[in-house]
Amino acid sequence: MIRTEFFTGPALAEQIAPLSALRIAVFREWPYLYDGTMASEQGFMAGFAATNGAGIAIAFDGDHAVGASTCLPMTEEDDHVKAPFLAAGLDPARFCYFGESVLLSPYRGQGIGLKFFELREAHARAMPGVTTATFCAVQRPLLHNLRPANAVPLDNFWRKRSYLPTDLSCNMQWKQIDSDDKVPNTLRFWMKSL
Fold it and tell me: What is the pLDDT of residues 22-55, one digit of tens each?
């Protein structure tokens, strides 16, 4: 039976290793195509775990983590995430940023993603001054050579949760499975009033 728990504060540090392995496995797939290493992931997750206001929803099958979804106050995010909001005259202090959401493929379609949104939204609503949840998703061309034939965009899933796409986007770089070096990627923001 799958159980989902939400972690904050010191408890986040205990989840670094399993979350790093999950990120590597799931982000390697379409659409992110991320070619990550355990060392870089553990460094990233350690920084996240030390962030004030950060939280992670984790789905467990027994004692094994099979999915995870993060959030934190946007004020604690990197400048490249905050920049499009500042440029649009939006105060980052009013936003909770939903970072990655990763779930191993055998566990998809069972309501776990919905639970991830519910737990992160509850955490966001408890943040002083936060009125909006936001996340960003990588943009890929329809004719990308690595797009699987059965790839289904998550847009409808997000819309059913009342998230709407915006004109805001940011750029992030990462090494992909089809590249030797880091490549730039455009990610579009979606938002929901809480």
Answer: 999 999 999 999 999 888 888 888 889 999 999 9
CA neighbor of 49 nearest in space, from 82, 16, 98: 16
Distance from C-alpha of 61 to C-alpha of 183, rounded to nearest angstrom:
34
The closest of 131, 130, 133 to 121, measured between CA atoms, is 133
d(CA 135, CA 153): 15
Nearest to 91 by CA among 53, 122, 130, 54: 130
Instruction: Tell how many helices (H) and how many strands (E) occur in the chain.
Output: 5, 7
Q: Tell me, what DSSP letter sits at residue 190?
A: E
Every domain of the chain and the residues it spans = 2-193
Per-residue pLDDT of 46-86, as tens digits, reads 889 999 999 999 999 999 999 999 999 999 999 999 999 99
Six-digit token string for 156? 């409808």
Cα 62 from Cα 1, distance rounded (Å):
7
Q: Which CATH class is domain 2-193?
A: alpha beta
**157-162: long-range pairs with CB below 8 Å, 24+:** 157/113, 158/190, 161/114, 161/117, 161/192, 162/192
Tell whether the torsion through CA atoms of 34, 21, 42 and 155 is positive or negative: positive
